[in-house]
Design goal:
heterodimer; A: mainly alpha; Arp2/3 complex 21 kDa subunit ARPC3; 75% helix; B: 28% strand
């Protein structure tokens, strides 16, 4: 199996199964890990900024289909996420749990904060209450749940510093 | 190697920039265009998968649902018979009956696209037959009110805005006392606002729609038909009266499940053919 197929299968399955099956099962109230963010981080760390941006756009566009009046917002946030994480590829110290946790936390926080900022601006809604009650704990939970998955991906040789 | 790595970085930037541009274009499109594009893309990208999954889930649930519904029908028939007897007895004493409180048509629809992301607050529904429906008509699940029609895609498809949408506000009433208030989502909970601190509200009180005009921000979508009175909304979970406020702080647990719905009902929507016949 080529590295490309293996990586694609991994991040797509992680995103789809994680969001539809695992996340609802391990949620604490409204807070559950964002497996789409973990999948994009994994893809970007495995294949770089270009693949991260394309994968992020595809996944974001599918998510956007659930919010007709916000078409493009998930795609935008995830393109930036995929490109941003891909840009750090090769610049990070690989194999350190703390580094990966920090990367996942920053990715989740940045993605959700941008999303919420635009959504709050468009819908004229409060920002801070949702940020503290949803975005911050979700980013933490995403980091906690994502580190073992990144470690597993590294063990199977999916994460690579360069092509 | 340097030239190769520079080229790779360059192509990544180009692709990233292009995708950001496409995303921004989609984002700034007017709402009707976004809805049409979403509908077209969803028909190809996610609806086939959702159809298969919904069918599988339906098959698994249909036996239990049938048993439950049969029991409910039997109970309702018994209650109806008893009520008729009671009214008949009463008419002999006091005269004509009170008119029916609720006579709006209810149209069943299937949820074909559900929330796929956190912070998203809409579902798409599809009717088996063409409907004469309007924006803002309430949508209920078997448990309670779910939201209301946000955008009509066509006679058989529409987007529903859930009660959990940030700008949603709904006039509600406490069934036990008849007190009215305004239900709003607040971060991870629902609250009923504008209920005085000395009013009688206790945990467990059933909250229903009040049938009064709703509150809605924005001049582009003025209030239309109010939600009928009596639709079940939720149950009071927690009540407090902070000493520095003139209103109670009331948390409500909604009865409807916003994440898992298969069949929902649009209140007030009637089949298009019947509506055309009814028009003069």
């Amino acid at each position: 199996m080529t590295a490309f197929v293996r990586t694609t299968l991994t991040w797509v399955l992680l995103a789809v199964l994680g969001e539809s099956v695992v996340a609802p099962a391990i949620a604490f109230g409204n807070v559950a890990p964002d497996f789409t963010v973990i999948a994009i981080v994994l893809l970007a760390m495995a294949r770089g900024a270009r693949a991260g941006a394309i994968g992020g756009f595809s996944l974001g566009l599918i998510q956007d289909l659930a919010v007709p009046t916000m078409l493009g917002l998930h795609a935008l946030c995830k393109v930036l996420l995929g490109y941003g994480v891909g840009w750090t590829r090769g610049r990070l110290i690989y194999g350190l749990v703390l580094v990966e946790a920090a990367l996942l936390f920053a990715a989740g926080l940045g993605h959700d904060t941008l999303f919420l900022l635009v959504q709050s601006w468009q819908r004229n809604d409060a920002f801070l209450a949702t940020w503290f009650s949803d975005v911050l704990p979700t980013a933490l939970y995403t980091a906690v749940a994502g580190v073992p998955l990144l470690r597993l991906a590294d063990l199977f040789g999916i994460l690579r510093r360069e092509d | 190697m340097t030239r190769k790595s520079q080229s790779a970085i360059g192509s990544g930037e180009v692709v990233g920039g292009l995708l950001v541009f496409v995303s921004l274009v989609l984002l700034v499109l007017p709402d009707p265009a976004q809805v049409q594009i979403t509908h077209a893309l969803a028909a190809v990208l996610i609806n086939p998968w959702l159809e298969v999954r919904n069918f599988g889930e339906d098959v698994l649930r249909v036996r239990a649902d049938n048993e439950r519904l049969a029991a409910q029908v039997a109970t309702l028939e018994l209650q109806l018979a008893a009520e008729r007897r009671r009214l008949a007895d009463q008419f002999r004493e006091i005269g004509p009956a009170v008119p029916s409180q609720f006579d709006a048509p209810v149209a069943p629809c299937r949820v074909v696209a559900r929330k796929r992301a956190r912070l998203a607050t809409m579902v798409q529904i599809r009717s088996r037959e063409p409907l004469d429906w309007r924006a803002d008509q309430p949508v209920i699940s078997p448990r309670g009110i779910l939201g209301r029609i946000h955008t009509i895609i066509g006679p058989q498809a529409a987007w529903v805005e859930l009660l959990s949408a940030p700008d949603m506000a709904l006039g509600v009433e406490f069934e036990r006392t008849g007190l009215v208030g305004v239900l709003r989502p607040r971060a991870d909970r629902f609250v009923v606002e504008l209920v005085g601190r000395d009013e009688d509200v206790v945990p467990g009180d059933l909250v229903i729609t009040a049938g009064i005009a709703e509150v809605r921000d924005g001049p582009d979508r003025p209030p239309q038909d109010p939600v009928p009175r009596g639709l079940r909304v939720g149950v009071v979970r927690q009540v407090s009266a902070p000493s520095d406020q003139i209103f109670k702080d009331i948390s409500v647990q909604p009865l409807a499940d916003f994440n898992r719905n298969e069949t929902v009902f649009v209140v007030g929507a009637r089949p298009l053919a019947a509506a055309r016949e009814a028009r003069p």
